[in-house]
Specification:
By secondary structure, the chain is α+β, with helices and mostly antiparallel strands. The chain is built from seven helices and seven strands, in the order H-E-E-E-E-H-E-H-E-H-H-E-H-H. Helix 6 packs antiparallel against helix 7.
Amino acid sequence: MYQPPQHREDDLDTQHDLIRAHPLGLLVTAGDGGLMANAIPFHLKTGSSPKGTLQAHVARANGQWKEIAAGAPVLVVFQGADTYITPSWYATKQETGKVVPTWNYAIVQVRGSARTIDDPTWLRAQIGALTGENESSRPQPWAVDDAPPEFVTAQLKGIIGIEIDMETIEGKWKVSQNRPLADRQGVAGGLDTIDRTDAAEMADLVRRYSK
């Protein structure tokens, strides 16, 4: 990933926070059949490897797990907040007019050793952890145990687990750090006028990385 120094984010906790907040990762493999990519929700497990471990599952009918079992290298991309930035928000536009549009974003890329797991106990635990994370904010969280046991058992037969020990993890927070302070303030203020979650999240990032 192209990494200008001002946009690098090497703090592991910050990288992990983005993965937890945006767990739908793009799993990319490069096997004998060429490149393959699938969007898959991941559970981040810490403590078992220095940088963390990603756990997921795919449908047994999804041939990507066979690529992983055969040793294909893997890349997982987690996309955080992103939004178009109009030059109209820059103070520099009024001063010189020498401005162009851009796109702000926060992103994490992971590479590591991947393996497939065909074990009902592991799969049940992975699904429980993933579901628990995403249901925790609900007033009455749904749990896997709410479904009939025989139904869950049947569903588990249709999936394969994937586990990736992260060997490299890169973060890129392109949030207007290369602009003068007045431009960054204009960007944050402009984003405040947009009624979208991603705009609000990006405005917060622009302010945070301006300090």
